[in-house]
Design goal:
Length: 127
């Protein structure tokens, strides 16, 4: 259903440093770069699926209350690595890695990027 997702930033270079450190642990890498936006996707994907951008209207970017992007992880170890990489790169904790009540194998970690955008890494496989 989703074609791509866009998150705002107030500092594109800071955002790039953060996402370049965090997304590779889930298999995503920088695919597109300009002064106003950066795009990430998995190898072999023909388009960037996650864009980090300076707002088109030039107003200050702000995180949405109740908004979150959940990224798929292959293993629970990948979720743990995502969480550790995010904290090391300047993100903040919004929920340590662990099983959640959504179903028996829903293993997730929640962080906020330096602009306050909420992201999750989720593995739904049993281990």
């Amino acid at each position: 259903m989703l074609l791509y997702v866009t998150l705002g930033t107030n500092d594109i270079e800071r955002a790039r440093r953060f996402y370049d450190a965090v997304l590779p642990v889930l298999g995503y890498k920088l695919q597109r770069l300009s002064d106003e936006e950066i795009g990430y996707s998995a190898d072999g994907d023909t388009r960037s699926r996650l864009w980090i951008v300076t707002p088109f209207n030039r107003r200050r970017a702000a995180a949405g209350n109740g908004s979150m992007i959940a990224l798929g992880a292959e293993t629970r170890a990948d979720v743990d690595a995502f969480y550790a990489a995010a904290l090391a790169a300047g993100g903040t904790d919004d929920g340590k890695p662990g099983l959640r009540s959504y179903h028996a194998n829903f293993y997730a970690a929640y962080i906020r990027d330096p602009d306050g955008n909420k992201l999750a890494a989720v593995c739904e496989k049993p281990e």
